[in-house]
Design a protein that fits this description.
With 697 residues, the chain is of the alpha+beta class. The chain folds into three domains: 155 residues, no CATH class; 153 residues, no CATH class; 237 residues, no CATH class. It has 23 helices and 20 strands. The strands form four sheets. Strands 13-12-11-7-6-18-19-20 form an eight-stranded antiparallel beta sheet. It is globular, with a radius of gyration of 26 Å. The protein starts with a helix and ends with a helix.
Length: 697
């Protein structure tokens, strides 16, 4: 179909849909509770129509700051915590009003309608149309049921009929939605956010409202703070970020010259740094691709955002809807989804081949989120969990076929937001210093730690005080110690800031308990989390977040194991950034640090894939010239026989802070013990510099 004809068709469908939606509030055909629901949905759709017109006409750019703030609030008002208790986006409220089955489905429908917000701002007519038509199709099913069952007490439509409408909506539109998602990942021409970053007057904070994301004082104050910074400091932040990306390719022995695009991910308010980063990447011949964090069933909703994003209006909303796919997920849908993904990558295979990977700028400092588990929320069944795991494995392999892991890299850096507290500016400056520490100093100290570790066959890690950790981690055998090493000397490249040595342990012989009294993983809090390992695989687990063991286990299985029955220990590392640890204690922000920084403040252990996932064959060397040979474990080694059993598409780091660490000791083949850390202090010769920061405590 010609582009002009396609646009005409979409416009016509849009007009028909919005005209019918305007009639809904005036009708009273359905049962009272249903009519109330659809009246609210129609009002929201009409608000989206208004948003479309405001953007299309150019009025958005002419509004004053106060008017933009009112308009922005109106888009998100219904799911804000103050209104969420009586919102149909809240499964508790929807189920209470509409019954369990119908409530869950109509709650999902409203969450999906909210995907029209980004569509209106990006002027994606088709994304608006399909959601309006979905609303009308479900409404018509309710109208027909009301007419057929007139006078009956329960004139609700057949539940399976409504579920089928939702099923075919998801199935039918996986193709265009997936195609659009891949295009935004690899095609710099999809430049909605890039134009805001590069073309806006960043001194005029109205630009923050042009995205369509929720904007709060966090984003406004961040932008103001960055605007007040001298140009050299902005350049330092951007240079650290982009150089980390470049060095990641160099250290990984990967050719950055064959890459043409880089995926930039950031939070609103950091545009001044991102603009400088785009210029830096341009000098590397890399163009930016920037996509929005997921907002619908096709992209997935998650508390932990990936893409560009504003403030999260309500993390509980995202948590409640994280498994909405449970309403429709079956084997056929998994196959359909994978076919759509393959077709999309085939369409953009040339662009995918020259895509370099993500450059991520994270934020931290927001109020810690403790989710509420709701029985009314959609939950994947055991069968669906297995299907979800299967999809993630096959989708990961499929993406790797078009964007090969051995050719791509990444980098991650993090900065605080004003919500971190009254000392925000001071904390921000200290984090900038931490992110730019002298990597040469750390490189030398870490080499001494690696030299000690390479003498061992295993490492013993034990907690102290309330920490019950008691682990023995098995190391790979070095066949030629003069040329080989187990641990990578990690300085400020892909994981900024500096400060860790890491390896992929041998699973057989890795046994014991990992325990942390309190930790935040992917923005979720865990209290007294513990994992038991038998030959490197998780055999048992628990935490103390909820009142029942079942709730605690489900929480970990959903959000740490990602529905797998077990996961291997994919990484063992020793964090050396005592400066970051002290800063966290000094300002009382230990519970707000992102894992990116937290993992540098003690030994940490990742469950899931290794750090070298999909790039095991690439030869990697430390600055001393030794080759890192510990890139595999017994699970990832299965890739040659059955790739579906080799990877898990997850990697979650769990850190033991220094003050919970009693001992970290290397055990040699001869039975000698080489202590590296005792009672939270580095005791290995040549590492005393790391204790200077700790002395401040």
């Amino acid at each position: 179909m010609a582009e002009e004809d396609r646009k005409d068709m979409e416009t016509e469908r849009y007009k028909l849909a919005i005209e019918r939606i305007r009639e809904i509030p005036e009708e009273s055909i359905c049962a009272g509770v249903l009519q109330t629901y659809f009246g609210r949905m129609a009002s929201f759709a009409l608000l989206m129509d208004q948003a479309w017109e405001i953007v299309e006409s150019g009025r958005l750019r002419k509004m004053g700051l106060a008017e933009l703030q009112i308009f922005n609030s109106s888009l998100y008002e219904d799911i804000l915590p103050t209104h969420y208790e009586e919102s149909y986006a809240n499964p508790d409220y929807a189920v209470n009003c509409l019954g369990e089955s119908m409530g869950q489905m109509l709650c999902f429908l409203y969450a999906e309608l909210r995907g029209m917000i980004p569509a209106a701002f990006e002027q994606d007519r088709m994304a608006m149309v399909i959601r309006m038509e979905l609303l009308l199709e479900v409404y018509q099913a309710c109208v027909c049921a009301a007419q057929e069952k007139a006078g009956e007490a329960g004139n609700f439509p057949d539940v399976e009929n409504v579920r089928q409408i939702l099923y075919w909506y998801v199935s039918d539109y996986f193709e265009p939605e997936t195609c659009g998602k891949v295009a935004k990942l690899v095609c710099p021409e999809q430049d909605f956010a890039s134009r805001i970053v590069l073309e806006s007057d960043l001194e005029d904070l109205r630009y923050l409202y042009y995205y369509g994301e929720y904007v709060t004082d966090n984003e406004l104050r961040t932008a103001k703070h960055l605007n007040q910074m001298p140009e050299e400091k902005i350049r330092l932040m951007a240079d650290t970020y982009t150089e980390g990306y470049r060095i990641g390719f160099a250290v990984g022995n990967k050719d950055i010259s064959i890459k043409k695009t880089v995926n930039i991910r950031y939070c609103l308010g950091f545009e001044r740094v991102i603009r400088q980063a785009v210029r830096n990447f341009d000098r590397m011949s890399l163009r930016p691709t920037i996509y929005r964090a997921g907002t619908n069933i096709f992209q997935g909703r998650n508390v932990n955002k990936a893409g560009f994003f504003g403030a999260n209006p309500n993390k509980q909303f995202d948590y409640d809807h994280r498994e909405d796919l449970a309403l429709v997920l079956d084997k056929l849908l998994v196959e359909r989804r994978l076919d759509c993904m393959k077709n999309a990558f085939e369409q953009y295979k040339q662009e995918a081949a020259v895509h370099g990977g993500p450059a991520v700028m994270e934020i931290f400092g927001e109020k810690p989120f403790v989710p509420q588990n709701k029985d009314t929320a959609c939950r994947l069944s055991e069968k669906q969990q297995k299907l979800s795991v299967e999809y993630a494995s096959r989708a990961g392999a499929l993406q790797n076929a078009y964007i090969p892991g051995e050719e791509r890299s990444f980098t991650i850096i993090a900065f605080p937001v004003p919500e971190i507290g009254g000392q925000y500016e001071e904390i921000f400056d200290e984090i900038v210093e931490i992110n730019t520490l002298d990597y040469k100093l750390y490189q030398g100290i870490q080499q001494k730690i690696i030299d000690a570790l390479d003498q061992g066959v295993s490492v013993v890690i034990r907690g102290c005080g309330a920490n019950r950790t008691d682990l023995n981690v098995r190391l790979h055998e070095l066949k030629d110690p003069a040329k080989e090493t187990n641990f990578e000397n990690c300085v400020a490249d892909v994981n900024i800031p500096v400060g860790e040595v890491f390896t992929s342990p041998v699973l057989a012989g890795t046994n014991g308990i990992l325990h942390v009294t309190r930790v935040f993983l992917n923005e979720l809090e865990y209290r007294d989390i513990w994992l038991k390992f038998e030959d490197g695989m998780i055999s048992d687990y628990g935490c103390a977040n909820f009142t029942t063991q079942e709730e605690n286990r489900n929480y970990i299985k959903d959000n740490v194991l990602f529905h797998h029955e077990t996961l291997p220990i994919g990484e063992f590392a020793i964090g050396t950034n005592t400066t970051a640890y002290v800063a966290a204690r000094k300002y009382g922000i230990g519970d707000k640090l992102p894992i990116l920084i937290a993992e540098k403040t003690g030994p940490h252990f990742a469950v899931g894939d290794t750090c070298y996932s999909h790039a095991e064959e690439v030869r990697v060397y430390n600055p001393d010239g030794k080759e890192i040979i510990a890139k595999d474990n017994e699970v990832s080694a299965l890739r040659d026989k059955d790739v579906s059993k080799a990877y898990f598409q997850c990697h979650t780091d769990i850190t033991i802070p220094y003050d919970e660490l009693g001992e970290l000791t290397v055990l040699t083949e001869a039975g000698d013990r080489i202590p590296i850390i005792q009672d939270g202090q580095f005791v290995l010769e040549g590492c005393g510099e790391l204790n200077k920061a700790l002395a401040a405590l």
